[in-house]
Structure formats: structure tokens, C-alpha cells
Design goal:
With 894 residues, this protein is of the alpha+beta class. 37% of the residues lie in helices and 13% in strands.
């Protein structure tokens, strides 16, 4: 309604009313020359509906606002190419920002539009034999999600420039209008941008001296339609009771079914209206899903294929290949800017495989700007904003974006050649335009997609032979979901007695539900798949399980207490068989299959483990396990495998891993293999050499051919595990006489010297933690004072500065207490995607914890500092071990 009025006002102004004439919004439909727009406006603006919806007065305000505009001043600026988008996107952002995000409505920067149209024009000339590019009368162009028409306007500008270059003189306007009406097509599902697109093209054609003649019914070929349906002539369309809508649908279907579209270009929406497609739309993404269990098929993982932009890609591919029309040779160009997850995400391997088969060349211009992978930072650490940032929306799109240009030639050769280039930083749009003016193939990196990594369309850094190494599940087949809960503040505690008291109250039938909600709101608040009252009644019937309050690896180097419940939804997700596998002598390796950011090495634990300890999709691999739990055999359902005993338990090994160990100490070498894998995965050189591949799939482990090297590597991994697991006492680090190089590291000190009188002096008040939304703890700035080492501190670390850092920090709890000499590399140490020591402190800010630290917690922090220092000092040995293993590798069976 608003944009109908706005469009009518613009067209009314073009009819040259007298300066004092007033625009009557109730007569707006008379100025709307496209039948479907006029009918749509008539139906919505019918007086009875406006009265029912209470909109009459509001639209009157809109009309009054337009009548207050200085039209002379306004229309002096209105021919600017960005004016219409300026009105559309900010309006929707103010009207309903959540709706805007759901619909995937984003302003496309003119630099991106210009670059993409220019690339298509050049490829038509250079590779598809259309010497006149977009001006060639055989070239049909479609923007299937045209929004406010930016791409269509740019295409017509290119055509007009070519016609001027050809000096067609008096026929230029007619040829340009013919292109706009008959071969430059736009589809749009949402009425508001549909109205604006017609308005923008009308203004553009008027500016070019080729205005549409309303009396002849001339209009741009932009249709109100769902671009993802109506292509298959065998499927019957749903007819409307309004003839105007039927004619609009029929015109759109003629484009879909009759015209040999050669170019499909645009910016498809990044979010589904509801996420899940049905009927004809579902069939689009279904083509990229594959069949589980079929040998050689690259099966997708995750939900990425549900995103709306994927359906547009498939629609475009299918159209260029003429799969439904059956007429003409498969030929054409798809040029989309979109979410770039499909380039290497593991939801999309079959999608990429099909494009390698369907196209001859694929050009990727990555615009980066990803909040999740890079934190919107360049490789040099500079700001890397979204390419879609605007004055109205500084944040832009949160995921990274890329322009994909895929070319299919009549004489087709597969697989396609893939070319890739990155654009980074605040000047990326300027750089993109400059690059487009001097485009050349040699400025791209040619990518060789690796099948074992899912055929990624990005360059992948890997060690030669990496894909021949076994994936972690090929060694240790059984893995579990760790404990995941949205009720951590109730079910997890720093202090066992506090948690015990809370859970006893929860199970106490004499305490009413309302009182329990006051004592622990999270336990008594309904959530998705969690009925708080019903769950409490169910568990009270069974009773409190005191032995289920156990140690809990909550975050790296942060072990707490948790109440484990195996049957209810107190915890959101868990493996019911996980708890019985936690026993003395067993180790857990928490590993991520797909890292959102950089590769994170595993966390090791000997206690119950949080599912988010390292990454939200991490799984826990045990070294050993019991043969049966709850009466059924484990090993991932592989009933053909035998339980190879190790002590009183079973080795978590595949048959292939057993074969490897047979000549290297047999089953008794199980711990050595587990700890060898840990040593490999924590080597810095391993992470650097294989970083890209490690974001794609489970880590792969190189296996030494010689048993003595396996034993050496395993012993190194055991040292590593003892340092990573806070539950293990480490001689010379956490107990006994400290090693000389770490003796002076992380000591608790009082400002001005002297002894602490009481634990009250250990309140953490240096602003390390901030209470975030939903009870989330956010790290604060805190107080970390960087300084040079004292001569004594420098002498103690000797030649280990490279591992510990050139400077050191004093880390303050408050104005009177601090931990002295925390080396820079120790303070900066990250695991699980964040700075470990800073994160530990953030949880214990006095305002959040509600008490001062206990003496044992102050000492614990010192122990963690020394553990991390020892880990850093172990780094060179881990790297040397990794290099030694690569020299003589065991040939893993394919």
C-alpha cells in the first residue's frame, strides 16, 4: 500500500500538476499503469478493508507527508541511481527489521551490481561468441529475485551504451524499449519491491529518452511471481479469481517455459521464508542431497541446503541446462552474489560436484566479511566489513559473501575449471570495480577441488598425501554427544555442596513449583522440548541421584560440578550411554568435524564433558569403553566388530586400526595410538600445513610405520594429555618442586608486598566479566599490565622466549591482588575459540560469582598458567615429532 502510493505520487508528478495541486492518495490506482499493480492496490485499498484494518488514517498521514515534500528539490535528486533503494531498504528496516532479515532483503551495493553485469557482458563477448554482449538480440536475461530492479537497470544501461557506441541514431530508443519489454526479465515475489522495480525502470527508460507508452500498454518485463515454481509444464498452476493476476502468472510462465534464457543474474535471498521447502521448491534442493550409504557419493552434512539461495542456484542451473524445456543447446551464464557457505561447506559437496559436471568454468570472487569464520578481520588483522554494509545498516550481512560466475558453453567440457580470488578490507568494493576494469584469468588462483575434502571451491592448504591419512573415526569409531544444556546456571556449579542443596530442593515434593521457580528460575521455566513442571514431577517420582553429581569439564581448564540426568530433558542433548563410560583410566578427546573458524585442537578430559567445550558440533571420542551399556552392544551399531579387551574394558578401535597395531605391540598399544593422535593434532605445524582441510572434515592422522616411533609419539601425547586435563596432577608443574623455567610464573602477589590476611582479599573486581543477555557471561576488559621480564624472570626462562613470549603480564584480580609474571604467549593462549585464562576470570567476576575466590581457586589459576606454559614449551617437540612421523608413513588401506 505504501509503495503503491509512493509510486503513484511519482507518476502523478510526471503528469506535471500545478505547484499548488494536492496529491490524492485515494486516487492512487489511477496513476498505476501496470494492471497487476493497479488491481493489487484496488483490492488492498478497498474502503471496507482499510476501515477493518484501521489503516485509512495512517495512509492519510502518508499522503499528507508526500504533499509536504518540496517536489522541485526532491526530484532534482531523485534521478540518482540509488534513490529508490534508499527509500525501500530503510523503510523495511524501520517497519519490521525481523521480517526484513527473514525475507533476506539486502540492499545490493551498486559496485557489486556494476561489476557483475560488466563480467557477464564481457563473458558473452569473449567466451560465448556474442560480439555485442548484452546488446545482442539473442541474449535473454533473467533476474529471478529482482527486488527493486538494480540489475535490470544496469543491464539496460549497458545495452544503451552499446547502442550509442554503434551509432544506431533514431532507432536507439525503440531497440532499448524492445529489450526492456521482451528480453530483459525480472521476477519478484514481494509486492513492495515489485512496485519499486517498475517505478525505477520507468524512470530509467525516461532518462534514456525511451519512456514506456502507457496508452499502448508498454511495461518492463518484470513479473510478480515465485521464481522457484511454474517451470514444469506438467504441473498445473493455481489460478486466481482475478484476471490480472492470471495474466501476470501466464506471462511469467512464458518466460520460464518458452524463452531460452542465456543469462541468470542477481542477489538471491539468503534466508528461507520458513526455511523448509515443499512440493516443487523442495525438488530443487533435493537434487543436491544425495543418498546416504551409496559408495562414492559425497553425502551432505548439516542443514545448509535448506537455505533459500540454494534453490535459486538450482533453478538457474536447471534453466541453463534446458532440463525442463527440452529445447536448444545447453548454454549460458549464472552470476549470483550470495552467502559463500556453499563454496566449502559440508552441506554442499554434491552441489559442487554437479557444477563441476554442468559448467565449463567457475569464477569465484570472495568478498569475505564473515563474522563466524574470521570475526570480520582480514588475514592481517584489519577490519573486514561486510560488502553489504550501508549507512543505514553498518553491520551488513553476518556471513561471508561471494560472487559466483558459472559459464556453460555449447561445446561442453567437464569437469569445470575453478578460479578463485579474495577481496578483503574496507576498500573491497573499490578494489572489485578496479579489478573488473582490468580482468584477466591470471589474477585468479586455479583451484583443484579435492574429492576427499568434499570438492571445495576454495584453495586448500594441505600436506601432500594428507587425504591418504585415516580420518579420526577410521581409528576410533565410537563417539558421543557431550552434555548440552540451556540450564547451566542451575545444573552446573563451581561448588558441589551448593549444587547438591539446589538439586535436593528440586526433588523435594514439599517445595511448591512457584517457590522452586524463585529458588532456581531456569529449572522451572518452559523451553523448547522442555515442560518444566512435567519434568519435575517425573523426576520426583524417581528420586534424587546423589551419585550423579560429578566432576564436569565445562570449558577448557575449567572443571566444575554437574548434575547428570540420563532420562529427562533437563539437559537439552546428551548420549544416554555417555555417563557409564566415564571411569578411572579412560580418556576423552573432544574433537570438531567442522570448525566454524580456525582449526581448534582437541580438549582432553577424564571426567564427564560438555558438548560445547570446544565447538558446538564437537563429539567425544573415548580411548576405552565398557562392552555393553543398558543391555546393548556399542561400537556404533557395527555388530561384526569384536570387543578387544584392554584390562577390564574394551579398546575403541576399528578393525583397520587393529590391523595397524598388530605388528606394533597389538591391542596393548591402544593408549599409544590414542595419545599419538593427540600429539599429531596438537602440533602447530600440523595445524598450519593442513589448516584449510581441517575445517572441512574430521582431522586425519599420519601413522608412523615403526613401532618405536609410535611409542615415542604416544609418550609425548601422554605428557600433553596430563597438561591438558586439570584433573591430573603433573609433577614439576602443579605438584612437587616446580621446573626451573616455570618456577617464577603465575605467582599470587599482594600489591605493595606482604601476606594475604583472608580470602576476602580475593574478590575479582577488575571487570573481567559482564552479564550478557540470557545469563551469558561476556569477557570484559579487565586489568592486564604488560611489562618486560625482570632479570630474574628472564634468567629463569632462558632460551625459551620464542615459546613463552618477549614480554610478560601481571594479571589483577582487584586493586590489591594479582598474579605476577604470566608470559605473553601464555596469556594469549586459546583453546575452544577463546582466550582461556581471560575466559576463566570472566566467569568469576564478583558481580557474577557472588563471592570472593577461595584460596584453592587462586592457586588453581596459577596451576593453569603453569600448565599452559608447559604446553607452550612442549611445542617444538610436538612439531619435531610430527615431522619425524611424516618421513616413514604407514600405508593406510583405501
Amino acid at each position: 500500500l505504501f509503495y503503491g502510493i509512493f509510486s503513484a505520487w511519482v507518476l502523478w508528478h510526471r503528469s506535471q500538476p500545478k505547484p499548488k495541486d494536492r496529491f490524492e492518495w485515494k486516487l492512487a490506482a489511477e496513476h498505476l499503469n501496470v494492471p497487476v499493480i493497479r488491481k493489487l492496490f484496488y483490492e488492498l485499498a478497498e474502503p471496507g478493508k482499510l476501515k477493518e484494518w484501521k489503516l485509512d488514517e495512517i495512509l492519510g498521514w502518508a499522503g499528507d507527508a508526500l504533499n509536504r515534500v518540496d517536489r522541485t528539490a526532491f526530484f532534482a535528486k531523485f534521478d540518482d541511481a540509488q534513490a529508490v533503494q534508499y527509500f525501500y531498504e530503510p523503510f523495511l528496516e524501520q517497519f519490521d527489521p525481523e521480517l526484513r532479515r527473514q525475507l533476506g532483503v539486502w540492499y545490493t551495493p551498486p559496485e557489486i551490481v556494476s561489476y557483475m553485469v560488466g563480467r557477464v557482458d564481457q563473458i558473452l563477448r569473449d567466451e560465448l561468441g556474442r560480439e555485442d554482449g548484452l546488446a545482442d538480440e539473442s541474449v535473454y536475461v533473467l533476474d529471478p529475485c529482482c527486488g527493486t530492479g538494480a540489475y535490470l537497470v544496469e543491464v539496460l544501461k549497458r545495452i544503451d551504451a552499446k547502442l550509442i557506441e554503434q551509432n544506431v541514431s533514431a532507432t536507439r530508443a525503440a531497440k532499448l524499449k524492445q529489450a526492456a519489454c521482451n528480453r530483459i526479465f525480472g521476477f519478484e515475489l514481494l509486492p513492495a519491491p515489485f512496485v519499486v522495480a517498475h517505478l525505477q525502470l520507468g524512470l530509467g527508460m525516461q532518462h534514456a529518452g525511451a519512456p514506456f507508452d502507457e496508452k499502448l500498454g508498454e511495461r518492463p518485463a518484470i513479473y510478480l511471481t515465485n521464481a522457484l515454481t511454474g517451470w514444469d509444464p506438467k504441473l498445473d498452476a493455481i489460478k486466481s479469481i482475478f484476471e490480472e493476476f492470471n495474466k501476470e502468472r501466464e506471462a511469467a510462465e512464458r518466460v520460464k517455459r518458452k524463452h531460452p534464457v542465456l543469462v541468470i543474474i542477481g542477489n538471491p535471498p539468503y534466508n528461507g521464508l520458513a526455511g523448509i521447502a515443499i512440493d516443487e521448491e523442495r525438488a530443487l534442493s533435493e537434487n543436491y542431497r544425495g543418498k546416504a550409504g551409496v559408495p562414492g557419493v559425497l553425502n551432505p552434512h548439516g542443514q545448509g541446503l535448506n537455505d533459500l539461495y540454494v534453490r535459486f542456484f538450482r533453478m538457474a542451473e536447471r534453466s541453463i541446462l534446458r532440463e525442463l524445456s527440452g529445447g536448444g543447446a545447453a548454454e549460458g551464464i549464472v552470476c549470483f552474489v550470495s552467502n559463500y557457505s556453499w563454496l566449502d561447506g559440508m552441506s554442499f559437496p554434491l552441489m559442487r560436484e554437479k557444477y563441476l559436471d554442468s559448467f565449463d568454468s567457475i569464477w569465484i570472487d570472495s568478498l569475505n566479511g564473515d563474522k563466524y569464520k574470521t570475526g570480520k578481520l582480514t588475514p592481517d588483522g584489519d577490519s573486514d566489513p561486510s560488502a553489504f554494509s550501508t549507512a543505514q545498516n553498518r553491520e551488513g550481512i553476518q556471513v561471508g559473501t561471494a560472487i559466483a560466475t558459472m559459464v556453460r558453453k555449447t561445446i561442453h567440457k567437464s569437469p569445470a575449471k575453478v578460479y578463485y580470488r579474495d577481496f578483503w578490507g574496507a576498500t573491497k568494493l573499490k578494489d572489485l570495480l578496479a579489478f573488473g576494469l582490468n580482468w584477466a584469468k591470471n589474477k585468479y588462483a586455479q583451484v583443484e577441488p579435492i574429492r576427499e575434502l568434499g570438492l571445495p571451491f576454495r584453495p586448500m592448504t594441505t600436506t601432500p598425501g594428507y587425504t591418504a591419512w585415516p580420518r579420526l573415526p577410521e581409528l576410533f569409531p565410537d563417539r558421543y554427544i557431550g552434555v548440552q544444556s540451556s540450564r547451566d546456571e542451575a545444573l552446573v556449579s563451581h561448588v558441589r555442596d551448593e549444587l547438591t542443596e539446589r538439586m535436593q530442593s528440586y526433588f523435594d515434593k514439599s517445595i511448591p513449583h512457584d517457590e522452586m521457580k524463585r529458588l532456581s528460575p531456569k529449572l522451572m521455566t518452559d523451553a523448547s522440548r522442555f515442560d518444566a513442571v512435567a519434568t519435575r514431577i517425573q523426576l520426583q517420582t524417581r528420586g534424587f541421584l546423589r551419585d550423579n553429581i560429578v566432576r564436569f569439564a565445562y570449558r577448557p581448564f575449567d572443571v566444575r560440578w554437574v548434575y547428570w540426568d540420563p532420562i529427562s530433558k533437563l539437559h537439552n542433548e546428551k548420549s544416554p550411554d555417555l555417563f557409564p563410560q566415564v571411569f578411572y583410566g579412560n580418556f576423552w578427546m573432544s574433537v570438531c568435524q567442522h570448525n566454524r573458524k580456525e582449526y581448534d585442537p582437541p580438549v582432553i578430559s577424564t571426567v564427564l564433558i560438555d558438548g560445547h567445550i570446544i565447538e558446538r558440533n564437537a563429539l567425544c571420542f573415548p580411548m576405552l569403553q565398557k562392552e555393553k551399556v543398558n543391555g546393548h552392544t556399542l561400537f556404533g551399531g557395527d555388530t561384526g566388530r569384536q570387543c578387544h579387551e584392554f584390562g577390564d574394558h574394551c579398546a575403541n578401535l576399528t578393525d583397520a586400526a587393529e590391523d595397524y597395531l598388530t605388528g606394533r605391540g597389538g591391542v596393548k598399544a591402544t593408549p599409544m595410538l590414542f595419545f599419538h593422535a593427540l600429539a599429531m593434532l596438537h602440533a602447530t605445524k600440523y595445524a598450519i600445513e593442513n589448516g584449510d582441510a581441517l575445517r572441512q572434515d574430521w582431522p586425519r592422522v599420519p601413522l608412523p610405520n615403526k613401532s618405536e616411533l609410535l611409542e615415542f609419539s604416544g609418550e609425548l601425547g601422554q605428557q600433553l594429555a596430563s597438561l591438558l586435563d586439570p584433573e591430573q596432577r603433573v609433577s614439576g608443574v602443579t605438584v612437587g618442586k616446580p621446573r626451573p623455567e616455570i618456577r617464577l610464573i603465575g605467582t599470587a602477589n599482594k600489591v605493595g608486598g606482604g601476606q594475604f590476611a583472608s580470602e576476602a582479599e580475593f574478590e575479582v573486581t577488575a571487570h573481567w566479566g559482564i552479564a550478557g543477555k540470557g545469563g551469558i557471561c561476556m569477557p570484559g576488559k579487565g586489568k592486564a599490565v604488560e611489562r618486560a621480564y625482570t632479570p630474574e624472570e628472564r634468567a629463569a626462562i632462558g632460551d625459551r622466549v620464542a615459546q613463552l613470549g618477549e614480554t610478560t603480564f601481571d594479571i589483577y584480580l582487584n586493586d590489591a591482588a594479582y598474579w605476577k609474571n604470566v608470559p605473553a604467549a601464555v596469556w594469549a593462549y586459546k583453546l575452544g575459540g577463546y582466550q582461556v585464562l581471560k575466559k576463566w576470570l570472566s566467569y568469576r567476576e564478583f558481580a557474577l560469582l557472588g563471592r570472593a575466590l577461595r584460596l584453592d581457586e587462586v592457586e588453581y589459576f596459577q596451576q593453569v598458567v603453569r600448565r599452559i606454559a608447559a604446553l607452550r614449551l612442549l611445542g617444538p617437540a610436538l612439531d619435531a615429532n610430527y615431522e619425524a612421523v611424516k618421513i616413514d608413513l604407514y600405508a593406510w588401506p583405501k
